[in-house]
Sequence to fold (353 residues):
Amino acid sequence: MLPLVALLVTTFIIPAAQEPERFEIQKLADGVYASIRREPVGLGVDANNVFIVDDDGIVVVDTNFGATSTRQVIAALKKISAKPVKYVVNTHWHDDHVLGNQAYRDAYPGVQFVAHEATREYLPGRGAAARQAQVQNLPGFAGALRDAIAQKKNLAGASITDDEQAGYSSDLRMIESYLGDAPTFDVVLPAITVKDPLTLKRGGRTIEIMQIGRGHTAGDIVVHLPAEGIVVTGDLVVFPVPLVGGDQSHVTEWTATLRKLVDLKPKIIVPGHGPVMRDTGYVEQMAELFAAVTERVKAAIGKGETIQEARKSVNLDDFRDKFAGDSQLKRFLFANYVTGPAVTSAYRALKQQ
Fold:
């Protein structure tokens, strides 16, 4: 059971839910809408999406975990506008942001896909291997979740809370959808790759697509609407607990990246997962977390600790309390998605300096 959880922490490959719709459409500005996921907090996530409607077409930011989930979102989009989708921007390479590309390709012939060049490099090789491993391991993990619900025990063996039961049930729905879509997975690679900032002029609207720095992955990009004061961040920002990969994230760089995000002075932030944000308070809290991880791991290295020793000695309880509060579920998520992988990421980066 625990190795499966560790795999999920590393790859973030948890699929999207089926019926009924598990998202809501929010209008952010004239012609700008967000599809915000409303599944309960759990191990599994599906991506928020943004639709930018201009005079003759639509720019979409991020797709979803598979064709089933994405088709639901496309159906909602078609109620907003009958205009064609011209561009789909993937903020990074994880499956919950890219696997739905095939549904947009099928629904909107001629659509062009945009992502960082690192995403284009990752998806056919390491991405395909991670996806194959997930398909193989998810049935066993689903069994562990069913057992936990039936026995009224969480994955750590304690009495299950209502939040955990709701989260595990949501995770099971996601797994069923993902495995149902798996035989027809068709990964659509970006034809337009971004290294330097790319600006789209769509009617009277300016859309800036750029990498402001690395954090969640090496392929992170944000979509900035300067006139509207909107930034779509992908998984550089995730609520209620950041998602960190020990082998893919860049914890020692993440704080600087988030500070550049704050420097854009956004009025509205659409995170990769979680609610729309109207201020930068949570982003600044994330920046403080990763700065503290970096400094504490640096101190552990200064004492001559190995990576295994540092994973035990570096204490992040103060930040766990800020992010998770008293929630048993969120504390579990923080331990699995932050504490271990963040220390691992920082240690490896600092030892290479």
